[in-house]
């Protein structure tokens, strides 16, 4: 039962982090079931899929884009997206700013940081993220707000490695969060998925992105 699993995870989180139900590839009926069980935050990794599902759910759902975002697709989610977790360049941030301004919105963003010991994951290095935060052109982007960082740990059974990766991301979050700027307002650290959210919350996550533990494996 989806509702039981959601309740169990919420109990485990005990208010330390918020649960984003990752619903990629899942049909709208399952999203409605999660909504009925109290979920108000949904995570999708593809722009088109999110834009198709959004009008089919109640308006108080907060839609989180957690997958790689191409600049030419920002316009499709700019009217409604609550938080973009996957910003990995100044160019993308400039496009989000442009599309947000067209909608008279300010769009909240996280910088995706590369923390895993894998070659396939997107994201900025710690140095690149610091460079972006300190870029003088950033302060012109008044229709975006950088509210924190996101990262994916290595897909491994080695809990100590996962913990070390999350701990490093938390340290970077604390460091960059101390930098002041008109559109900087660090309050969210998005880390932890089905296999590692307990470790992530121990290490300071504020947003966990959980899919298969709630909805079953994706085919
Ligand atoms: C798919 C996905 C998740 C959820 O993964 P599960 O292992 O199913 O919980 C979390 N974060 C990102 C970025 C994803 O793409």
UniProtKB/TrEMBL annotation:
<dbReference type="Pfam" id="PF01168">
    <property type="entry name" value="Ala_racemase_N"/>
</dbReference>
<keyword id="KW-0663">Pyridoxal phosphate</keyword>
<comment type="similarity">
    <text>Belongs to the pyridoxal phosphate-binding protein YggS/PROSC family.</text>
</comment>
<dbReference type="InterPro" id="IPR029066">
    <property type="entry name" value="PLP-binding_barrel"/>
</dbReference>
<feature type="domain" description="Alanine racemase N-terminal">
    <location>
        <begin position="2"/>
        <end position="218"/>
    </location>
</feature>
<dbReference type="InterPro" id="IPR011078">
    <property type="entry name" value="PyrdxlP_homeostasis"/>
</dbReference>
<protein>
    <recommendedName>
        <fullName>Pyridoxal phosphate homeostasis protein</fullName>
    </recommendedName>
</protein>
<comment type="function">
    <text>Pyridoxal 5'-phosphate (PLP)-binding protein, which is involved in PLP homeostasis.</text>
</comment>
<dbReference type="GO" id="GO:0030170">
    <property type="term" value="F:pyridoxal phosphate binding"/>
</dbReference>
<feature type="modified residue" description="N6-(pyridoxal phosphate)lysine">
    <location>
        <position position="24"/>
    </location>
</feature>
<dbReference type="InterPro" id="IPR001608">
    <property type="entry name" value="Ala_racemase_N"/>
</dbReference>
